[in-house]
Amino acid sequence: MSQHRITATVLSVIAMGLGQIYNRQYIKGILLLLLYGTGVYFGIDNLGHAFWGLFTLGETPQHLELVGKVYKMVPGDHSIFLMVQGLIVLFVFIVFVLIYMANIKDAYEVGKSREQGKHPHRFLETILYINQVKFPHLIILVPLTFVLFFTVMPLVFSIMIAFTDYSSPKHLPPANLINWIGFDAFKDLFTLSSWARTFFGVLRWNIIWAVLATVTTFFGGFAVALLVQHTGTRFKSMWRTIYILPFAIPSFVSYLVMGNMFNSQFGPINQYLKLIGIQGPSWLSVPTWAKVTIVLVNLWHGYPVSMLLIIGILGTISKELYEAAEVDGASAFQKFKMITFPSVMFSLAPILIGIFAYNVNNFNGIYLLTNGNPANSEYQFAGSTDILITWLYNLTMLQGAYNFASVIGIIIFIILASFSIWNFRRTRSFKEEDMY
Amino acid sequence: MASMNKVKKMAVLTVNHLLLLIIAILTLYPVLWVVLASFRPGTSLFSEELFPRQFTWLHYLELFQQFPFAEWYLNTLKIALVSMVCSTFFVLLTGYAFSRFRFQGRKGLMTGLFVLNMFPSFMSMIAVYILLLNMNMLNKHSALMFVYSAGAAMGYLLVKGYFDTIPKSLEEAARIDGANHWVVFFRIFVPLSRPLIVYLSVTSFAGAFNDFIFAQMVLRTKEQQTLAVGLFNMVSNQFATQFTLFAAGCVLVALPITIVFMVFQRFLVEGLTAGAEKG
Question: Which of A316, A422, A430, B92 has the highest local Cβ count within 10 Å?
Answer without folding.
Answer: B92
